[in-house]
Amino acid sequence: MGRLIVIEGLDGAGKRTLARGITAELTARGCSVASAAFPRYTEDVHAELVAEALRGEHGDLGSSVHGMAVLYALDRRGAADALRADLDAHDVVLLDRYVASNAAYAAARLHQHADGEVVSWIRDLEITRFGLPEPDLQILLRVPAEVATGRAEHRERTESDRRRDRFESDTPLQQRCAEVYAELADADWWTPWVVVDGATEVDFSVLVDKHVLA
Predict the structure, then answer these.
(1) Which of 44, 74, 107, 196 is deepest in the core (most CB within 10 A)?
(2) What region holds the Thymidylate kinase-like domain (predicted)?
């Protein structure tokens, strides 16, 4: 059985770069790695609905915190069997966003903290009811919200397929989300967390040795 490793953080934090670095380090050591990213916009109808709602389609769906959270959760439920198969076939399965993203953004939208009602509700829905595979480690790639926003804006200008959605363009929401992420990591919400400073160069060898394969 492989290890399930999740990378969490704000849009623009550098999650893709971190995932590539971890994958390269693991591959160099002879480990087999599978990866996925949520939401699966091109693979799952629930994620498609999320993308459309974020563009203002489907009436007031995008304004419903719980409605959007259910769609995000159903996307992951639909991927659960594939994740289990990947865990059987690979040494490491690396995810860009998972359940904690739903918890952090929903709480931030409702101006709640990590110990609030909506985080508890999402835990009951995705972890207890849907029985999603449990991560061995959750990595919070932490950067100041203004740094993440600047990176996301630059990416939007330079990459035609990376337009920010309404949540990613909401700087106060991103700041609140960063606070909830920090609270989740401090509490080792669901499973163990490690915090990585996304504003400095990451030593992938140390990260893999101390945490990913520990």
Answers:
(1) 107
(2) 7-190
Find the domain containing 131 and state its range: 3-212
Contact yes or no for 188/194 (Cβ under 8 A): no
pLDDT digits 0-9 by tens, 10-23: 988 999 999 999 99
Question: What's the residue count for the chain?
Answer: 214
d(CA 23, CA 94) in angstroms, rounded, equals 8
> CA 30: distance to chain centroid?
26
Asked if the model's pLDDT at residue 155 lies above 80, the reply is: no
Question: The CATH number of the domain where 27 resides is what?
Answer: 3.40.50.300
Q: Which residues of 67-98 are buried (b: 16+ CB within 10 A; e: fewer)?
A: ebbbbbbbbbbbbeeebeebbeebbbbbbbbb
Please give the model's pTM, rounded to 2 decimal places.
0.91
Rounded to 5, what percent of the chain is helix, strand, coil?
A: 55, 15, 35
Q: CA 211 to CA 206: how far, in whole Å?
A: 8
Domain count, the chain: 1
| pLDDT value of position 156 | 61
